[in-house]
UniProtKB/TrEMBL annotation:
This protein's UniProt keywords: DNA-binding, Transcription, Transcription regulation
InterPro entries associated with the record: HTH-type_LysR_regulators, LysR_HTH_N, LysR_subst-bd, WH-like_DNA-bd_sf, WH_DNA-bd_sf
Protein name: HTH lysR-type domain-containing protein
Cellular compartments per GO CC: cytosol
Similarity comment: family membership: Belongs to the LysR transcriptional regulatory family.
Top-level taxon of origin: Bacteria
A GO molecular-function descriptor: DNA binding
Cited Pfam families: HTH_1 (PF00126), LysR_substrate (PF03466)
Location of the HTH lysR-type domain: 1-58
DNA-binding as UniProt keyword: yes
Length: 289
């Protein structure tokens, strides 16, 4: 199986059309189409549905995507190993991360890494836990930065504990207290981030048998904080996500105290490419000191 055909198929799926895939690969659209056709002929079934708007994967195409990504990852790993043996580091890294980590931790790590390895391409993808783990499972991402949850199906490297906070309007009766009783979430106008699917917050509430009075949901925590600032309700967030945002809100530790563990997850550190291993080392050295 030729890797060029696999790259053309993957690029077409990710770009949504042969013309956009051609721009990414520096081919002509007809060249991309011919490569995908050749792969389909080799496999014996269609991988893409073509229409006037572009292309989308067929059911068989969807099933083939993880294997194609794995094939290309292994090819890339071979080249990276050979380069490492020759004293060079090449390749690319795709990182999936919580927005809090992508905002407050990773920029300094990426800067330091790029200063030493400017030839390495880095792609950073932000999302909630469900998206981050999906990108890791589908081999779209090489490494992920997120919180620990049992069961942990990946190799795990803990980095730091992050305190969970109650975020309240400044006018809230408890805004100047030393802490916020978690049980009170049952009586407040609760704003749930991540469209009601914030895994860390949901788990925290369930573990403490608290059923929040959810009035609003947002995609991003920043929108939730802006709503809190306007007195529309309160929420629970990890401390890291609340940093540096200019919202006039009160942030209190919880009673009982709650925290999450943030760290690095990847399918298998031992089998990771030299480039990924080197980046992980940079991250650990800079985020655990």
């Amino acid at each position: 199986m030729e890797s060029a055909r696999c790259k053309a198929f993957l690029a077409a799926v990710e770009a949504g059309s042969f013309s956009k895939a051609a721009e990414v690969l520096n081919y002509t659209p007809s060249g991309v189409s011919q490569l995908v056709n050749a792969l389909e002929n080799e496999l014996g079934f269609s991988l893409l549905r073509r229409n006037k708007k572009g292309v989308i994967p067929t059911e068989n195409g969807e099933k083939m995507l993880p294997a194609v990504r794995e094939f290309l990852l292994q090819e890339n790993r071979i080249y990276q190993l050979a380069a490492e043996m020759n004293g060079r580091l090449i390749g690319s890294i795709t990182i999936a991360a919580y927005s809090s980590i992508a905002t407050h931790w990773l920029p300094s790590v990426i800067r330091a890494f790029q200063e030493d390895y400017p030839q390495i391409q880095i792609k950073l993808m932000e999302g909630i836990r469900q998206k981050v783990t999906k990108w890791l499972d589908e081999k779209i991402a090489d490494v992920a930065f997120l919180s620990y949850k049992d069961p942990m199906p990946y190799d795990w490297i803990p980095l730091a504990e992050d305190q969970m906070l109650a975020v309240l309007p400044k006018t809230h009766p408890l805004a100047k207290e030393a802490s916020y009783p978690l049980q009170n979430c049952e009586y407040e106008r609760f704003i749930m981030p991540a469209l009601g699917r914030d895994v860390d917050v949901v788990a925290l509430l369930q573990e403490n048998n608290v059923k929040p009075n959810i009035q609003f949901s947002t995609l991003e925590n920043f929108a939730a904080m802006a709503m809190i600032e306007q007195g529309l309700g309160m929420s629970i967030m990890n401390e890291l996500i609340t940093r540096k945002w200019q919202c006039d809100v009160a942030k209190l530790p919880l009673t009982p105290p709650q925290q999450i563990t943030l760290g690095i997850a990847l399918p298998a550190l031992e089998n990771a490419s030299p480039t990924v291993k080197r980046f992980v080392k940079y991250a650990v050295d800079r985020l655990t000191c």
